[in-house]
């Protein structure tokens, strides 16, 4: 699903102008696996449909497997698109009583004592293999395979409800994915100016933090009344430029 000849891959500071940001992008599993990756965006888990940035996705399909691992549950979803996709849930800690047969004494004829035990539980205990579900979550990749980290999982209770979701997916494709995303020069200049302002604010914040740390260190070293070495604001700003530039701020 490479970028077509007319599509321009815009800088990170333009992503908020995309019709796919920040929305749940309704895809089929096979389409998610076909999304592109581009250098410089891996750390933020951004993928691309043409030049549209994709980070949050939405799917509907059949649960064909559920596997539990240490601290997580994996739902395998089949939406009849020709590919399955794994949906990851981080299990949460939930204290529960657990019988301790060795806690009683020789003269104790009552029930065995209970001790607190922390269990890892799913937020969706009623979801089972064979259920049709709707899932919204963040997109990531593990060993070159796309995965979804679940944010919300809902049981689809009827065929009619499933058909309505298919229609929403088709509408999203027609109204968003199949239309080119093009920014004019005015929008690009405005986005660049906003990014520059954000970069300057971040640099100033870093300088203020450095000044506070320097002042604190000087007071601890020479006492409250000692004079501290003045901070060169210009040099600090110059030194921070490369780092924030690499972050794309």
Structural Rg = 26 Å
**Biggest sheet: strand arrangement:** 4-5-6-10-9
Topology order in helix (H) and strand (E) letters = EHEEEEEEEEEHHH
**How helix-rich are the residues, as a percent range?**
25-40%
Our count of helices gives 4
Q: What are the segments in which pLDDT stays under 50 over at least 5 consecutive residues?
A: 101-107, 224-228, 243-249
Shape type: flat
User: How does the helix and strand content classify structurally?
Assistant: alpha+beta
Structure description:
- Helix content is 31%, strand content 31%.
- The protein contains 4 helices and 10 strands; from the N terminus they run E-H-E-E-E-E-E-E-E-E-E-H-H-H.
- It has helices at 29-33, 159-177, 185-222, 233-247, and strands at 25-26, 47-49, 52-54, 56-69, 72-78, 84-90, 92-100, 113-121, 132-142, 145-155.
- The strands form 3 sheets. Strands 4-5-6-10-9 form a 5-stranded mixed β-barrel.
- Helix 3 crosses helix 4.
- It starts with 24 loop residues before the first strand and ends with a helix.
């Amino acid at each position: 699903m490479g970028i077509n000849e007319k599509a321009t891959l815009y800088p990170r500071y333009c992503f908020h102008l995309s019709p796919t940001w920040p929305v749940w992008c309704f895809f089929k599993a096979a389409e998610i696996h076909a999304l592109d990756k581009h250098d410089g965006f891996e750390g933020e888990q951004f993928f691309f449909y043409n030049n549209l940035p994709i980070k949050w996705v939405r799917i509907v399909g059949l649960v064909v497997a559920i596997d539990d691992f240490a601290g997580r549950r994996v739902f395998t979803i089949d939406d009849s698109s020709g590919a399955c996709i794994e949906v990851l849930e981080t299990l949460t800690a939930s204290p529960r009583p657990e019988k301790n047969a060795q806690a009683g004494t020789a003269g104790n004829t009552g029930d065995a004592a209970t001790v607190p035990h922390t269990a890892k539980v799913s937020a969706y205990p009623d979801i089972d293999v064979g259920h049709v579900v709707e899932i919204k979550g963040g997109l990531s990749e593990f060993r070159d395979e796309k995965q979804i980290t679940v944010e919300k999982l809902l049981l689809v209770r009827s065929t009619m409800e499933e058909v309505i979701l298919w229609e929403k997916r088709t509408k999203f494709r027609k109204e968003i994915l199949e239309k080119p995303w093009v920014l004019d020069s005015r929008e690009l200049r405005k986005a660049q100016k906003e990014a520059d302002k954000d970069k300057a604010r971040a640099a100033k914040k870093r300088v203020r933090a450095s000044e506070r740390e320097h002042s604190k260190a000087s007071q601890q070293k020479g006492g409250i009344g000692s004079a501290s070495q003045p901070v060169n604001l210009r040099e600090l700003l110059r030194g921070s430029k490369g780092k924030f530039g690499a972050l794309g701020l």
